[in-house]
Design brief:
This protein has helices at residues 3-12, 85-99, 116-125, 141-155, 163-176, 224-228; strands spanning 45-48, 51-54, 60-68, 73-80, 104-107, 128-131. It is α/β, with parallel strands linked by helices and 260 residues long.
Length: 260
Amino acid sequence: MNRKRVHRLWRAEGLKVPVSQHKRRRLGSSESASTRKRAKHPNHVWSYDFVMDQTQDGRQLKMLPIVDEFTRECLSIDVERSITAKDVVARLRQLFERRGAPDFIRSDNGPEFIAIAVKEWLKDTGVKTLYIEAGSPWENAYSETFNSRFEDELLNREIFSNLVEAKVLVEEYRVKYPGLPTQGRQQRTAAQLPRLSDPRRVREGTRDRAHRRQPGQRTHRRCPLVEEAKPRRHTWTLITPGTRIGGRPEGTPEPVSHFP
């Protein structure tokens, strides 16, 4: 069956070209999603979730990373065989004393996060909870992003022989985790930021600003070979039948130059 017959049958049956459908990003229906409730300053919204792994002997490792969604900084990572609701409260209390309490904290509906002990303690400290919809991990995007990088860059590359080794390597990774590249500049005002025309931004060893090209000024580059080349003066000599190549007979006049 050729193409023309296919087109004829297609028109005879009244078929139409299927409309191309584009994928849409799922924002989630919950008001606690990261796309709807965004962090606006440091210590505004924290998020946490569990990451599972195991040691070389097959025993379980349970890890709890806590991330500041505005600065993308990992505040802490607990590594234990088991982490309960009391352990979550103990870690949050330590972080609140050291860094201050956030306005919101985002998590899924895990039993350690929705426990009565955790809810009551957060309520007493004035921190509001943001629970995402069940089965919607994309609503906790910042925590999922960190956990994904954490698994790819450390957990999938290291074999932990025991719990102590896992704690040391995880803490080393947490300290070196870059977070947001501009997190150090977010807390400075506009007056404290250096201006683009500030001479202090000029690298050492560069030429003086008076010799630098100004806006709208064209730069003429000279070729060093052309500058070093000198014009040559060509001389023409009349050769007669009695003249030897490489010399001239005695008594013959000097060659005359026809060019100045």
